[in-house]
Amino acid sequence: MRNRDPETRGSSKALWRGPCRGTEGWAGLGWAGPGRPLGKGCRSGGAGPVRSSGVGAACPWAAAPPCETRRRLFLPALRRGEAAYVGAVVNGHLVLTAPVQFNIDYTGTEPSSPCNKCLNVSWDSTPPCTCIINFTLEHSFESNVFMYYGLSNFYQNHRRYVKSRDDSQLNGDNSSLLNPSKECEPYRTNEDKPIAPCGAIANSMFNDTLELYRIDNDTKTPITLIKKGIAWWTDKNVKFRNPTGDGNNLTALFQGTTKPVNWPKPVYMLDTEPDNNGFINEDFIVWMRTAALPTFRKLYRLIERKNNLQPTLQAGKYSLHIGYNYPVHSFDGRKRMILSTISWMGGKNPFLGIAYITVGSICFFLGVVLLIIHHKYGNRNTSADIPN
Amino acid sequence: MWSVWCAGEEKRVGTRTVVVGHRPVSETDAYVAQKFCDNRIVSSKYTLWNFLPKNLFEQFRRIANFYFLIIFLVQVIVDTPTSPVTSGLPLFFVITVTAIKQGYEDWLRHRADNEVNKSNVSIVENAKQVQKESEKIKVGDIVEVKADETFPCDLIFLASSSVDGTCYVTTASLDGESNFKTHYAVRDTTVLCTDEAIDALTATIECEQPQPDLYKFVGRITIYRSNQEPVARSLGPENLLLKGATLKNTKRIYGVAVYTGMETKMALNYQGKSQKRSAVEKSINAFLIVYLCILLSKATVCTTLKYVWQSNPFNDEPWYNEKTKKERETFKVLRMFTDFLSFMVLFNFIIPVSMYVTVEMQKFLGSFFISWDKEMYDEEIKEGALVNTSDLNEELGQVEYVFTDKTGTLTENSMEFIECCIDGHKYKDCISEVDGFSQTDGPLKCYGKAEKSREELFLRALCLCHTVQIKEADQVDGLIGHPERKYTYISSSPDEIALVKGAEKYGFTFLGLQNDFMKIRNQKNETEMYQLLHVLNFDPVRRRMSVIVRTTTGKLLLFCKGADSSIFPRVQQEEIQQTKVHVDRNAMDGYRTLCVAFKELTQKEYDKIDKQLSEAKMALQDREEKMAKVFEDTEADMHLIGATAVEDRLQEQSAETIEALHAAGMKVWVLTGDKMETAKSTCYACRLFQTNTELLELTAKTVGESERKEDRLHELLMEYHKKLIQDVPKNRGGLKRSWTLSQEYGLIIDGSTLSLILNPSQDFSSSNYKNIFLQICLKCTAVLCCRMAPLQKAQIVRMVKNTKGSPITLSIGDGANDVSMILEAHVGIGIKGKEGRQASRNSDYAVPKFKHLRKLLLAHGHLYYVRIAHLVQYFFYKNLCFILPQFLYQFFCGFSQQPLYDAAYLTMYNICFTSLPILAYSLLEQHITIDRLTADPQLYMKVSDNAMLQWRPFLYWTFLGAFEGLVFFFGAYFLFQNSSLEDNGKVFGNWTFGTIVFTVLVFTVTLKLALDTRFWTWMNHFVIWGSLAFYVFFSFFWGGVIWPFLKQQRMYFVFAHMLTSVSTWLAIILLIFISLFPEILLIVLKNIKEKNHQTASFDLPILVSYKRIENGYVKTEDAVTNLTERYPLRIL
């Protein structure tokens, strides 16, 4: 593993000149790899001040005022300190196989953007405005690739928005289907018919279509995007259910309801496959899990690695075909498409690495300082305490 | 008189009229029955039907409960972010717990009431005995009480089974005095000792309206016999049998009920005990106000920012999130107001709802540790400490002034006869190792200087002049061993027993009182009989008592004994000098001295006295004054025989205790009724005054007796003031307890001088005497106040209590005369001593011995204070870091009042997840072991002046809470910059965000407590790890089910999903570590610093909370060496 360190590090540095920032963070982390001995020294340094306060029976100079209570106090501290170092070191290794990420803003606010023409699209514009953005991947995506859409300045966590849903309707409750909760107001009924699914969240469901093509010698090959398996299993199978009744005909089951105002078509026409249609449509389910912050990403499609020989996405030219339906310009929002691979720790995130490295360094530094202090003053204490 | 009474004057406020047996006096009498209350005792507060409304009303009068009620109502009415359940449930919980506690207490009272009210009593009706329930007794009923029964109401004693019309009563349950008191039946009714006879009695009783003084009663009975003039007899306390007292050694008695139910003296005494509040509560309220301000400002900031943010139309109402019609139509002002209220509701958890109930539980449960303390258990009386109120536990750790009684508190109050002097000749018991009783032939020989007749007169005086009773020993076989020893002496005053025993040593034995005849056995083993004519009882104002007896030869003798100051003015002046020398010397040695005098009365004189006494006793008004006047006249022109010296031994360890209290920075004042010399020597003995203490005296002696008193007093005051205050260099002025550094001063003042200072006789431009005096007092290490009346004791306490900075005062005493000061002080402590239980009943805490005060204050008080202070600070801290992320979240959700946490978490946080660890901590924590706390009194100073609840520690906790809140929120915020936290690329929503923050929060605050805990018991482990486990378990459970009663299934599998992500685990661990890091660092630094300072290193839990002791106390080094000697293992 360590042998591969410099090599991988170099490559990652070379590769990530692209649109995604934050490489510095990872580069910093990479430093922790060769810094493993440092971690070790760190640990003993960390133990230093603790021992000096009288933990270890092994330390002769700690014999002066040890005390049960102090030991109880410091052991957890020591362990947590160690955990920080170990964590930092481990993390450093993980980074080396860290996820790669590519992201592209297709809002179209700049006049040069191909999507600029669609900027002021409205919900009911037919036919849908489409635009194509070409881009180059400078390195290949080795493992499975996850395709996200990202929105900015979109307050999915607004209180009025968050509560504007009826979970029992979504759970297939027939009475709620025809009589949605009051929380759905003002998206509860339309023309005296109950809306299914009701509420602001459902009404504002993301409806851009994104398609990915690989450009190989001017021929466009579509890349297979898998639309299932993007929602939580429990949501798909337990929390969201289509209404029950005679037969499986969704059209009949949703009889007596109307589509959400902004939707072009009703809920039972979201998809052609029956196990991905109606309330259990995964795009819908993903949208219904409200994001924590106004800038968020949601999983859109999966790109599976076909075979072991070829990377999922080779470096090269690609083109993104966008069915631009979702207006964000009115509230100063942005739209992005993100391609990312995922490690066992999840997507790319510099935060944890930086934080662990920083905390670890501080601990090490303090450990050294305290050790020095202890050695400087500890001896005096020892002699002073001997008469006792 | 009679006609006046007939005219219906009986309704005047002062008296009530009771018709004995409800038999009208005469047919012609237009007697209208007065209404009296029935004999039901109601100590309970609630009944079954009014419990709910009344209790709720009482509870919502508390400001905190009311606040939460308002919040709850706002939630119900206004559309708020959190459901009313979130604040309703905790409130309901708190209210229910309190209601259950109060209901249980009331149920106990009901049960006790019923026991009393439903007990059977016999009432004589129509010459027959009728069994009735106690509560049915009416005023005027004739009640029969048998031996060992308790009196069901206040009765006038009519007749008893003994011919002489006496009965013995013990009032142990009333005032704790276990000796038998003799009560006397009305003289004219003593013969009516059958049902028939008593039923034939026609009489009315006129007496005062009920009043609480147990020892006062004034009344008159008028007895009508056919064809005879009505006879009127006076009634006094000796005729009144009090409810609650028990009949002893008498087969049965008849009495007529005069006061019933809630009007009995016992019931009146139990009413209206004042509530004491502790200083900690004041701090809590101050902090509450701060947090309320934080809350208000948060809500204001959020509301303002919301409208600033919303001024942008696409922020206010983007297309995806339209308002309802109703929302659009509301007026803007109203909308702002509801927004403000909504923010208030969202942040209201910052004021901890459960803190009050936790504090109350902590106090209630914590007080058991005092009563369970085995070290405070006294083998002699087979009792431990008693806690009467649990509200003041922590106040025990804040005491600055200790006011102690001397007799029975510092001393044993078990008297021993040491010596006497007869006509100036000293008689010291030189054969004390042999029990003097067997030495029948003149043990006085070694000092036999006085005339034999004088000696005998003196000893007879000792044998006769007292109110001692003989109690027969219970076992019959006592006859075999020591036939003479089959009895014990009982008396309300231990001095008298010591004197009688002393006389016994010298050959005169008191054999008891039978039918008004006192029997004594003299040195020649002959029995002498004296008829007891009158007892002029002891009272603290006269400070003397007398008896008048008739010898068998018909001589009338008056014996009087009392304090020298009250005897000397009443004897022949030429006799005083020789005795005075002895008395003064004895007093210097710390003995209690009494002088004995006698006079012979002629029959004529006696008749006059007898008449006067009877008249005075008969008087309905001003009886006290009249009696006092007769006593004054009678006890005059006597002849001094001699004086006695009785030693009151110091209680074990009282000196050590006083020293420890001094070292702990407390000032000890002794308030006693004793003589100055006696008190002074006791103070030296118990090291209140050290040899190097400079004494300042403000007594009758130094001030002088002349009319220039005030001038002299003025001079003295000015001189002392100059010495103590003006001459002390000013630079030490800022430092509290500066006296510890310089010369120690002691002040002695006596009662008369004190009253001169407090109530100057003339308007003498001396109104600031009190101030000067107070300043002098506060500068003295020790103050001795002697010759104090009970009320003066209370006055002193109040004076100190009301000085600047209102120091916490503690009074400790054992007798009835200490009750007033016990009630006055912040903390009142009673000693379960020999002078009855009145003090311990009125106290907040009662201990068996003075030495127990040391542990009570230094260990228990300190610990309770640290515990409750930590509890309070921790509560505010944990709620601040609970709510701060919620506040910060508003900046990221468009100020829409979106809650960060799920409603269940909001509700359960304070009730379930974090309540028990702090409760266990606040009950069990011993950050310093009890042994060390008791051994090193200096530690007490570290918590003085409410050190842990000052603004500094409060700010520290607040900053800690704010820091952690920031870490929680921004940690999660940066974590969520990630595209996905799961290894399958799926994304988390806002509820996962909140759950991560909440998980970090719960773990951090619990582990923070674990860091602070120094004393781990299995209970701490159980609740700390148990709470965390419960949180995890609950989260799984709460997220594992689709709850049919919930409108939204927000938490469905959120927690489980969160835990499948490795990043989340790493982030949670990291955030917990970062949050606790400053705390850990501070502990390490503190340790290093302390070691470098080479002080005895105490590991203290809350770093900045402890006050620093300014550059050492004089005795620091002694204390430390002391400590190392005692605890070598701990230091090495």
From TrEMBL, chain A:
It is a multi-pass membrane protein. Its main location: membrane. Residues 165-186 are annotated as: Disordered. It is found in: Apical cell membrane; Cytoplasmic vesicle, Secretory vesicle membrane; Golgi apparatus; Membrane. Residues 169-179 have a biased composition (Polar residues). Pfam families: CDC50. One of its GO terms (biological process) is phospholipid translocation. The chain crosses the membrane at residues 351-373. One of its GO terms (cellular component) is apical plasma membrane. Keywords: Cell membrane, Cytoplasmic vesicle, Disulfide bond, Glycoprotein, Golgi apparatus, Lipid transport, Membrane, Transmembrane, Transmembrane helix, Transport. InterPro entries: CDC50/LEM3_fam (IPR005045). Belongs to the CDC50/LEM3 family. This is Cell cycle control protein 50A. It comes from Columba livia. The gene is TMEM30A.
UniProtKB/TrEMBL annotation, chain B:
It is an enzyme of class 7 (translocase). It is a multi-pass membrane protein. GO terms for molecular function: ATP binding; ATP hydrolysis activity; magnesium ion binding; phosphatidylserine floppase activity. One of its GO terms (cellular component) is plasma membrane. ATP binds at D405, K406, T407, E496, F538, K561, R592, T672, G673, D674, R787, K793, N817, D818. It catalyses: a 1,2-diacyl-sn-glycero-3-phosphoethanolamine(out) + ATP + H2O = a 1,2-diacyl-sn-glycero-3-phosphoethanolamine(in) + ADP + phosphate + H(+); a 1,2-diacyl-sn-glycero-3-phospho-L-serine(out) + ATP + H2O = a 1,2-diacyl-sn-glycero-3-phospho-L-serine(in) + ADP + phosphate + H(+); ATP + H2O + phospholipidSide 1 = ADP + phosphate + phospholipidSide 2. The active site is at D405. The keyword Methyltransferase does not apply. Mg(2+) binds at D405, T407, D814, D818. Its EC number is 7.6.2.1. Signal peptide: none annotated. Pfam families: Cation_ATPase, E1-E2_ATPase, PhoLip_ATPase_C, PhoLip_ATPase_N. It comes from the Eukaryota. Keywords: ATP-binding, Cell membrane, Coiled coil, Endoplasmic reticulum, Endosome, Lipid transport, Magnesium, Membrane, Metal-binding, Nucleotide-binding, Phosphoprotein, Translocase, Transmembrane, Transmembrane helix, Transport. The chain crosses the membrane at residues 60-78, 286-309, 340-359, 904-924, 954-976, 988-1010, 1022-1045, 1065-1085. NCBIfam families: ATPase-Plipid, ATPase_P-type. This is Phospholipid-transporting ATPase. It comes from Columba livia.
